[in-house]
Hints:
This protein has helices at residues 12-16, 20-29, 44-50, 60-67, 82-90, 103-107, 122-132, 135-139; strands at residues 5-10, 33-40, 72-78, 116-118. With 141 residues, it is an alpha+beta fold. It has a four-stranded antiparallel beta sheet with strand order 2-3-1-4. The protein has eight helices and four strands, in the order βααβααβααβαα. The relative contact order is 0.25. The longest helix has 11 residues, at 122-132. The termini are close together. It has one domain: 2-Layer Sandwich (Alpha-Beta Plaits). Bound molecules: adenosine-3',5'-cyclic-monophosphate. Adenosine-3',5'-cyclic-monophosphate binds at residues 54, 59, 63, 93, 111-112, 114, 117. The site of adenosine-3',5'-cyclic-monophosphate has 8 residues, from loops.
Amino acid sequence: xxxxxxxxxxxxxxxxxxxxxxxxxxxxxxxxxxxxxxxxxxxxxxxxxxxxxxxxxxxxxxxxxxxxxxxxxxxxxxxxxxxxxxxxxxxxxxxxxxxxxxxxxxxxxxxxxxxxxxxxxxxxxxxxxxxxxxxxxxxxx
Length: 141
Ligand code: CMP
């Protein structure tokens, strides 16, 4: 899937605020096609594992608490140059720094409650897709 796919998570705050539809519309309008889709909820230990790379950061505990606080929507999406183009579409981590029109600028509440996740490299897109989806789910379409 190198280059063409990335993983996204619509985070708890956005799901709770009924923003699944508007956010998926933005993703589709930008030319991404959904290849796998899941509504689920992370247990605290699962959120810890997913964000293990940040375990020494001061925001780690808040991030884990938030990501396991309510349901999320996880998707594998496809487009040429997926990782880079998707990160442009979602905008900077902090919505105050995100460009106008980006998903985080429109929908995020704060740096931690920032509405949406996008993988930061092709390698992590594969790892993160493995984390959430089985081989059958990943390779059927
Ligand atoms: P995400 O793209 O899911 O990857 C890691 C998350 O950590 C990031 O979105 C933010 O929600 C959170 N994060 C990153 N940096 C900070 C920070 N300085 N303060 C609070 N939360 C942060």
